[in-house]
Design goal:
The structure holds two protein chains of two kinds. Chain A is 0% helix and 56% strand. Chain A is mainly beta. In chain A, strand 4 (31-37) and strand 5 (43-50) form a beta hairpin. Chain A is globular. Chain B has strands at residues 9-13, 18-23, 31-38, 45-50, 55-56, 61-64, 70-75, 84-92, 106-111. Chain B has a five-stranded mixed beta sheet with strand order 1-9-8-3-4, with no helix packed on it. In chain B, strands 2-7-6-5 form a four-stranded antiparallel beta sheet, with no helix packed on it. Chain B starts with 8 loop residues before the first strand and ends with a strand. The chains are: A mainly beta, B mainly beta.
Chain lengths: 112, 112
C-alpha cells in the first residue's frame, strides 16, 4: 500500500477554474503538509496541519484553501486558477515532533 | 530561507563513494541535520538525520563535524539509481508541524 497517496497525478485545467487535489496517508501520522515545486525545481512549504489544525500558512494566495477532514487526509482546493499556479504539488506527512517526512508522488498541475 | 550551503552539482563514478558536503555554520543547538533526496520527478525521500554524532543506516552515513557547522553525506558505493538532487536541511524537532525548508540542493550525477 502506498504510504502517502495523491490524486490526481496529473491535472490540466483552464484559467479561472476551481480544482481540488486529494491527499491521504495510511501511516497514522499526526502532521501533514503541502509543498509546491515550481518550474525552477524549488520546493516550498505551503501549509502544515497537526491533528487537523493549521500550523503553518506561508505566504500563499487565499485562493488556496487546505482542508483536513481527519488526520489521514489533507486536501488542497484552489479557486480561480492562474497560469502561475502551474507546478508540481507534493503532499507529505510526519509524526509529531519528527520531521522524517514521507512524501507523495506529486500532482502535476498545468493551467492553460 | 534555507540555512545550508551545498555545491550545485557533483559527479561520481559508479561503485565509488559519493561524499556530499553541506555547510550549516549558523546551526542552533536544538537543530538537527537532515538529508533528503529527490529522484527525477518523484517525491523527496528521507535518507538520514543526526544531531551531534555520526550516523549510519542502510542507505548512507552522515558525518557531522565536532562544531556542527558542516556535515558530509556519504553514499559508500554509488549506483546509477543514486542520481538525484540531494538536500541538506537543518531544522528543530521541538514543535509539531515544523516544516522542512528546502534549499537548492546538490545534483549528484552517477555515471558508469
Amino acid at each position: 500500500d502506498t504510504a502517502v497517496s495523491q490524486t490526481p497525478k496529473y491535472l490540466v485545467t483552464q484559467m479561472g477554474n476551481d480544482k481540488s487535489i486529494k491527499c491521504e496517508q495510511n501511516l497514522g501520522h499526526d502532521t501533514m503538509y503541502w509543498y509546491k515545486q515550481d518550474s525552477k525545481k524549488f520546493l516550498k512549504i505551503m501549509f502544515s496541519y497537526n491533528n487537523k489544525e493549521l500550523i503553518i500558512n506561508e505566504t500563499v494566495p487565499n485562493r488556496f484553501s487546505p482542508k483536513s477532514p481527519d488526520k489521514a487526509h489533507l486536501n488542497l482546493h484552489i479557486n480561480s486558477l492562474e497560469l502561475g499556479d502551474s507546478a508540481v504539488y507534493f503532499c507529505a506527512s510526519s509524526q509529531d515532533f519528527s520531521t522524517e517526512a514521507f512524501f507523495g508522488q506529486g500532482t502535476r498541475l498545468t493551467v492553460v | 530561507d534555507a540555512k545550508t550551503t551545498q555545491p550545485p552539482s557533483m559527479d561520481c563514478a559508479e561503485g565509488r563513494a559519493a561524499n556530499l558536503p553541506c555547510n550549516h555554520s549558523t546551526i542552533s543547538g536544538n537543530e538537527y541535520v537532515y538529508w533528503y533526496r529527490q529522484i527525477h520527478s518523484q517525491g523527496p525521500q528521507y535518507i538520514i538525520h543526526g544531531l551531534k554524532n555520526n550516523e549510519t543506516n542502510e542507505m548512507a552515513s552522515l558525518i557531522i563535524t565536532e562544531d556542527r557547522k558542516s556535515s558530509t553525506l556519504i553514499l559508500p558505493h554509488a549506483t546509477l539509481r543514486d542520481t538525484a538532487v540531494y538536500y541538506c536541511i537543518v531544522t528543530p524537532r521541538d514543535q509539531a508541524g515544523t516544516a522542512l525548508i528546502f534549499g537548492k540542493g546538490t545534483t549528484l550525477s552517477v555515471s558508469s
